Amino acid sequence: MGNTSLLAGALALAWVLTGCAPPEPIRIGLLAGLSDRGSDFGESVRNGVILAIEQQNEAGGINGRKIELIVRDDGQDKVKAELAAQELIALRPDIVIGPVTSSMATVVIPLMDKAGQIMISPTVASTNFYGKDDNFFRVNCTTREAAIQHARVLYERGARRAGLAFDASNLPFSGTWIEAFSAEFEKLGGSTSATAGFESAGSTRFSDVVARLLESKPDALVLVASTLDTSRLAQQARRQAPGLPLSSSEWAASAEALIEMGGSAVDGLLMTHAYNRGDNSAAYQNFRNAFKKRFQREFGSFSLLAYDTANIVFAAMKKREAGEGMKSALLKYGPYQGVQQEIRFDANGDATRKVYFTEIRGDAPVQVK
């Protein structure tokens, strides 16, 4: 053992002295909620990033350097998010992917922006973060874009009086989504019959939330909440108003998870999401197959968004010049080709995506628009 250790040490020293030591890895941070009630959201993003990094490392990394992922859990909690953000700032990664929800973006963006830490989120959509010259990049469309499209589709399907349930613990998302939806729905000739906010918790009485909405006699319910809470709201809606049409925002865009959690209660539910399920292109099929092989399950919208985001980062890193910062590189070397859509940042680091709609029919999601 002693001779082996001495030999290993000698070899390592020889590598250093001859200038052939392995290059330092590129460090990428990831900030997501991985321990909260809506952790399926954060896990979906994490898995998309992991797949992209593993594929890039297998291809040789970036300019000969491997990529190292540093993960921190914000727990969808202000105190925990601040601590996680400070830990990442201290580690000085090249870039941080995240946060994944608008409520956590409200907490961590000021801290990271002050420290000069570049961030890029696959999923943050609140208009609160749109149009600002800061260190924060967004890959997703805004709540305004998604909610307007949702209002139009719901109106086309015959809804005229919509009751909206929303998670107030992520108000930067749900509040701006509801505002945009209501304005567009009323412009079309419909009306928001009532809104009912709640704080996501295991003790939340979703039966009461639904009952408050039903008092206004809506002809459709719109659920702006996580996958878990959307499934529980749907279960209560089916008990109290079995035939009432249901729809959900893109926050609960993982149809497979909704089916698993909600069962027959989510049958017929219309949902907004950010990718084309009917895509037969090689790029989409390769991503889908690779994800299923790696994680033994189908992906959700968030995984595809995260995968695109990581590959945007890699593309900019490959092209940036010596000493060039990530903000400059991300703005300079686009547009970037995602699995399905081209991602183009404006001068403020904002991008957009096309919105799609899926209806759950039995135990399968079917794209309808």
Structure notes:
The protein is of the alpha/beta class and 369 residues long. 45% of the residues lie in helices and 17% in strands. The chain has twelve helices and 14 strands. It has helices at residues 2-17, 39-58, 78-91, 102-114, 143-156, 171-188, 206-214, 227-240, 255-262, 282-295, 301-319, 326-332; strands at residues 26-32, 67-73, 95-97, 119-121, 136-138, 161-167, 191-198, 220-224, 246-248, 270-273, 336-337, 342-343, 356-361, 364-367. It has a seven-stranded mixed sheet, sandwiched between helices. Helix 2 (39-58) links the parallel strand 1 (26-32) and strand 2. Helix 3 (78-91) packs parallel to helix 4, helix 5 (143-156) packs across helix 6 (171-188) and helix 8 packs across helix 9. It is globular. The N and C termini lie far apart (65 Å). The model is unreliable at 1-8 (pLDDT under 50).
Provide a concise account of the structure shown.
Helix 7 packs across helix 8 and helix 11 (301-319) crosses helix 12. The chain contains twelve helices and 14 strands.
Which features does this protein show?
369 residues, seven-stranded mixed β-sheet, five-stranded parallel β-sheet, 12 helices, 14 strands
